[in-house]
Amino acid sequence: MSKRNLIASAVLSAVALGSSTVVSADPLNELHKEEAKIHTAAAKSQEKINKLYEQSQELFVEYRGVVDETETLKVYNDYVATLVADQQRGIDSLQRQIDGIEGVKRGIVPLMFRMIDSLEKFIDLDIPINLEERKERVERLRDVMGNSNVTTSEQFRQVIEAYQVENQYGRSIRSYQGKLDYQGTEVTVDFFNLGRTALLALSLDQKNAWAWDNEARTWAPLGDEYLSSVIIAVRMASGTLTPNLLKLPITAAE
Q1: InterPro entries per the record (predicted)?
Q2: DSSP the chain
């Protein structure tokens, strides 16, 4: 080959080799770029996965809280339902009682009138302890029974209270001042009652004494042998002397 041809061949070979190197480098760069993109995409995907995981954990914790709260509320609701059922039973019971009040009133009002009548008869037949006060109490009861502003329960309470007062008269030892009618003469005296066992009277000058005869419904004068005992009895009942044994006229039970 001529020298000129050799140079040309060498130049062509160099150009060809250089072109081959450039062509070979482009796919590698593209590969690196794609790999970089893949890594970037993978990193972003992992970041999304991490965020989703965190969100899922938060949702799970929230879910567990809701489940626990639901269980708590269910237990509480069951408890409240029990209370409501018990209250309803109480309401039903009260309603039945309310429905029966009218029936009770229809039965108790006549009973109270009979009790007042019986109390009045008893006072008339009993020894005259605080007679005026006791009769006034009966009249007040009759007024109460005719007062529409007083409830039936209050009326019944006052009737029972009157009976309790009468009961106290039979268990007390009392002395009080008042007046008695002896043979048409009104005398101011100190009364003494030993329950319902004895009712005695002592004149204020302490010179005369009487005993109530319930069978004869009159005052009977006492002999001098009882005068000092009656004086002591009045003082004992008024609290000026200490209690002691006394000789008093007592009517024996038959």
Answers
A1: UCP028069
A2: --HHHHHHHHHHHHHHHHHHHHHHHHHHHHHHHHHHHHHHHHHHHHHHHHHHHHHHHHHHHHHHHHHHHHHHHHHHHHHHHHHHHHHHHHHHHHHHHHHHHHHHHHHHHHHHHHHHHHHHHHHHHS--TTHHHHHHHHHHHHHHHT-TTS-HHHHHHHHHHHHHHHHHHTT-EEEEEEEEEETTEEEEEEEEEETTTEEEEEETTSS-EEEEETTTTEEEEPPHHHHHHHHHHHHHHHTSS---------PPP-
Sequential DSSP letters for 89-148: HHHHHHHHHHHHHHHHHHHHHHHHHHHHHHHHHHHHHS--TTHHHHHHHHHHHHHHHT-T
pLDDT in tens, 67-90: 888 888 889 889 989 999 999 999
pLDDT score of 1: 46
CA atoms 34, 38, 44, 48: torsion sign: positive
